[in-house]
Specification:
The chain starts with a strand and ends with a helix. The protein is globular. It is an alpha/beta fold and about 230 residues long. It has 8 helices and 7 strands; from the N terminus they run E-H-E-H-E-H-E-H-E-H-E-H-H-E-H. A 7-stranded parallel beta sheet has the order 3-2-1-4-5-6-7, with helices on both faces. The chain has one domain (about 5-230): Rossmann fold (3-Layer(aba) Sandwich).
Length: about 230
């Protein structure tokens, strides 16, 4: 069975992707900081008959990243790495003039540094996979100038660039930066608590990621709404 590591997998898009992959028979290594919510997500995914390892921890911890890859190795390797764990930098979001620098550092550490650290840890196993792939969950804030989204957007723009360069440096892999579009998630609610407009559930967005796995287009940046429209 193929093996995926998914960070930020206790809820939202990470949990939806875990569920969708489990239905397809993938074995999973799941990460999140909240142990109880992660346990629930793992139990749900394992209900599809796949092997699931749930490791609560912080992706900024090098030891935790090593443990995630070690767990995947025990399951057979790493065929897919999804960097989904994210930090906003401030909750709710604020203008750059008010953004705490510690918050910006946290966003960069989680969204960029930890993502690269986990790729580096997993790279030997990804290279051995006949269909090795890396997914960096991005945002439209990485490409558009939205007020109050500056710190988060800057971190996602940096993640996009890392993914683009990794795709060039590792031609044997597929490296996709994916903008999932607006979703009804706790992260969005924390970012903009006053916004009550209806948004798609993460489970409705997961098929866009599955399409990438099925069709394996060239490494690059993709938008989930466009992928869903083309189905």
């Amino acid at each position: 069975m193929p093996v995926a590591i998914i960070t930020g997998a206790s809820k939202g898009l990470g949990r939806a992707l875990a569920e969708a992959l489990a239905v397809r028979g993938w074995d999973l290594v799941l990460d999140a900081r909240g142990a109880e919510a992660l346990k629930e997500a793992a139990e749900s995914a394992s209900g599809h008959g796949t092997r699931v390892e749930a490791l609560p921890g912080d992706v900024t911890d090098a030891g935790h990243r090593a443990a995630l890859v070690a767990a995947a190795r025990r399951l057979g390797g790493v065929d897919l790495l999804v960097s989904n764990a994210s930090a906003l930098g401030a909750e709710p979001l604020v203008r750059l003039a008010e953004l705490p620098l510690e918050g910006l550092r946290r966003a960069l550490e989680v969204n960029v540094v930890a993502a690269l650290g986990l790729v580096r840890e997993a790279l030997p196993l990804l290279r051995r996979s006949p269909a090795g792939a890396v997914v960096a969950v991005s945002s439209d804030a990485a490409a558009e100038a939205y007020g109050t989204w500056g710190g988060y957007g800057a971190s996602k723009a940096a993640l996009d660039q890392l993914a683009a360069v990794l795709g060039v440096e590792e031609p044997g892999l597929r490296v996709w930066a994916v903008d999932p579009g607006d979703m009804a998630t706790d992260l969005y609610a924390a970012a903009v608590p006053d916004d009550t407009d209806p948004r798609p559930e993460p489970a409705a967005v997961a098929p866009a990621f599955l399409r990438l796995l099925d069709e394996r287009p060239a490494s690059g940046r993709y938008a989930a709404p466009a992928l869903l429209e083309q189905r």
